[in-house]
Amino acid sequence: MTPVAEGKEKKQSSLVELVSVVAVALLLALGIQAVLVKPFRIPSESMVPTLEVGQRVLVDRVTFRFGEPERNDVVVFKPPQGAQTDTCGADHPSGSPCPAPTGEQADTNFIKRVVGMPGDRLKVIEGRVYINGKVQDEPFIQPDAGCPLCELPDEITIPKDHYFMMGDNRGASDDSRAWGPVPKKWMIGQAFSTYWPPKRIGLL
Fold first, then answer.
1. Is 13 one of the annotated active-site residues of the chain?
2. Which end of the chain is more exposed for a tag (fewer CB within 10 A), N or C?
3. Active site residue: 38, 78, 112, 123, which one?
4. Residue 1 belongs to what domain range?
């Protein structure tokens, strides 16, 4: 074999190896995203001041398969159909939060905080959450006493296997107050860390 042919074969072999490595890396990345961790971009100001518009977080897709969401977890989930139009799944007084979602999930992804657990009695006064008659300690919120969804003093009871989701920016969040608690089966995972922008990298 001539040196030229030998060099050509080595180049081709190196190229095939490079393509194989890149392909494997892409498959691993896609597999990790599908099964373990998913990146998510914050689309709105509903989670200010905790999360800003355009900030990026990592979402743990595994934990909720083996355990239950906890109060104050920040969660990515599918909202009920009708969330974009504030459609509640049940008739209720104007002074109460929506007690039940519509029966189907929407195609979009939302990110909010778990504020109410299954069986909790919940109401909202001046943008603050009350559980079983007690105001909650919520140092992470941006309160608002005057928004339309910030004064809902009539209690509801959260159904079994459902979680009441609210944004930290209480005056600028479209959430369970309007379209109801979210079933656990619609939850994608818990946001546990921010990775962009660099100055806001850290755990949630």
1. no
2. N
3. 112
4. 1-35
Same domain, 125 and 42: yes
Residue 23, pLDDT > 80, answer no
What pTM does this model have? 0.84
Domain count, the chain: 2
Q: What is the mean pLDDT of residues 44-54?
A: 97
Percent with pLDDT over 70 in the chain: 83
Can you read off the two tokens belonging to residue 22? 């890149």
Give the residue-averaged pLDDT of 47-52. 97
pLDDT of residue 36: 81
> Residues 46, 78, 173, 176: which is the catalytic one?
46
